[in-house]
Amino acid sequence: MSTSASTLQDVASVDDFLNVAATETAPLFEYLEFDFLLEYEVFAPASRGRTRVHKPPELFKGFLHCYYKGIYGTRPVTRELRNTLTWLSWGFEKPPSRDTVDRFLTDLELVVDDVFDRLVEQAAYRGLLDPTYRIDSTHITAIEYNDEATWNYDSTAEEHYYGFGCVIVSAGPKIPIAAEFTQRKQINTETVMRVTKDALAVETPIWMLGDSAYDILKWHDFLLTQGIVPIAPYNPRNTDDPFDIEYRVEDRIDEHAEDISLKQSVLDKTYDHRTQVERTNEACKDCGLGHVRARGRVHARTQVFVALCLRVIVAITNYEQGDNPGRTKLKTL
Fold first, then answer.
1. What is the DSSP string of 216-252?
2. I need a labelling partner for 235 at 20 to 30 A (CA). Which of 14, 201, 274, 324 fits?
3. pLDDT band at 51, cuts 50/70/90?
4. pLDDT (tens digit, 9 = 90+) per residue, 311-331?
C-alpha cells in the first residue's frame, strides 16, 4: 500500500521516517557497492546529453528489494517503487514511472550476465565457494500471456509446465556461480559445455557433480583434461553392451590416466553432496527464479538473472553478518 501524506505526518522526524523505511532488505545493500553499473555504456546519458533522473544503481536496488519481497513484473514493481517509503529509502529523487522501470529492465538485459558475474566474483573473493561444483537444470514457469514460453515436461516432477528452463552451476552455501537460460528444462551438450566453462572461469574446483543427464562424454573428457573429476551416474542407454560401472568417470579415467584410480566409496561419498543442488535451486526460486512474471523471452531471461543476482547477494550478506551475533540474518532464500 502506498504511504499517504497523512501517514507521513505521524512520523516525528525524517530520521524516524527513514527508520520505518529501513526494512529487512536494507542489509542487501550494506556490503556491496552497485556504482559499477554506471560503467556500462547502455546506461550512459542520451546522445543529446539528457541525464537519467533515476540512476541504474538505484533502480537495481529497487528491483532487488522487490524480488526479495516476492514482487515481480513491471507493474507490481512500479507500484512498490512508487511507495513513498520505498523510493525515498533507495535514493530516488522522485518515484519512477512504469516506462522508466520497463526501460531499465530492457537495458539491463544487455549486461545482466556481466552484472551476475561481477557479483559472483565478490562471493569468490570472500572465499564462499567450496571445491565441489554442482550442475543441474530446473524448470521456470511463466505467465500464460508470455507468448515466447512453451509447454515442457519436467521428468523430475513428472508433470508438464508452461515456461522455460535454466541450467545452473552452484557451489558453497547455495550460491549460483554460472547459469544459462534455456527454452526448456532438457539440456544439450552445447549448453552444458558453455555453462561449465563459465563456472570454471570463476575458480577451478576439485569435483563437479551432475545427475545421469550429464553422462556426456565430451563433458567428462573436458573436465578431466582440466584436472577436475566429474561424477555423474552412468546411463547405459543406447548401448547393447553396457559397462559394469556406477559412474561414467570410472571408464574415462582409464582413457585419460592409467596411473590414477578412484575408489567406489570415494565417488559415492562425494556424489552424496549433489543433493545440495536442489536446495540451491529452491533458494534461487525463492528469489524470483520460480515463476517468471515478465512477458517475452528477453524480460523473462532478465528476471531470471536478477533472481540469481539476489541469491548471490543474500549469501554474501549472511556471510558478512555471520560474525556479528547481534545482527539477524536475512530470511532463508
1. -HHHHHHHHHTT-EEE-B---TT-SS--S-SBHHHHH
2. 201
3. low
4. 999 999 999 988 544 444 555
The per-residue pLDDT for 11 is: 44
Average pLDDT of span 265-275 = 87
Beta bridge partners of 209: 134, 231
Using CA atoms, how far apart are residues 97 and 59, in angstroms rounded to an integer? 11
**Which cell numbers hold the place of 28?**
542487501
Distance from CA of residue 128 to its chain's centroid? 15
Q: What cell does 288 get?
A: 524470483
Statement: residue 207 has pLDDT above 80: yes
Mean pLDDT within 85-99: 80
- Would the pLDDT of 108 be above 50? yes
Q: Are 64 and 25 in contact (CB under 8 A)?
A: yes
Q: With contact defined as beta carbons under 8 Å apart, do 174 and 280 qualify?
A: yes
pTM of the predicted structure, to 2 decimals: 0.86
Give the number of other CB atoms < 10 A from CB of residue 55.
19
The percent of residues above 90 in pLDDT, for the chain, comes to 50
Give dist(CA 55, CA 75) in Å, integer: 19
Length of the chain: 333
Q: What CA–CA distance (Å, rounded) separates 197 from 222? A: 10
Between CA 271 and CA 274, with CA 272 as vertex, the angle to 5 degrees is 70
User: Which of these, 3, 15, 118, lies nearest to 57 by C-alpha position?
Assistant: 118
**pLDDT tens, position by position, 212-257:** 999 999 999 999 999 999 999 988 876 777 787 888 888 887 665 5
Distance of CA 185 to the CA centre of its chain: 16
Helices (H), the chain: 5-9, 14-21, 56-68, 74-81, 84-89, 98-109, 112-125, 189-200, 217-225, 248-256, 264-271, 276-284, 296-321
304 Cβ contact list (under 8 Å, min separation 6): 140, 164, 166, 179, 181, 288, 289, 292
